[in-house]
Design goal:
alpha+beta, two-stranded antiparallel ribbon, 2 helices, Alpha-Beta Plaits, about 90 residues, single chain
Length: about 90
């Protein structure tokens, strides 16, 4: 199961001890992508959580990736040619 590193902004005190996994913005707040932690960085994410003196970082299960939205008229049925269908021949 994939996990995601999140921050509780009400607890973050800008200590800057998040580790190498988390970048800090110019104000000292953590910045990271809203995406699952790659398996090869899970240990670094756990270390970042453990190093946070304000207990603002946590690891949560990542939500499953949503399927991309379908565009109108782009359903599998609309991609099939209807030229040889009985309805098309009656035109």
């Amino acid at each position: 199961m994939q996990s995601k590193l999140t921050v509780d902004w009400t607890r973050c005190a800008e200590h800057g001890l998040c580790g190498r996994l988390v970048q800090l913005d110019r104000h000292g707040y953590p910045v990271f992508l809203d995406m699952p932690v790659p398996f090869w960085l899970e240990r670094g994410a756990q270390q970042a959580v453990a190093m946070c003196p304000a207990l603002a970082l946590r690891i949560e299960p990542a939500a499953p990736a949503a399927a991309p939205p379908r565009l109108p008229g782009n359903s599998p049925r609309s991609l099939v040619s209807h030229e040889g269908s009985p309805a098309a021949r009656g035109r």
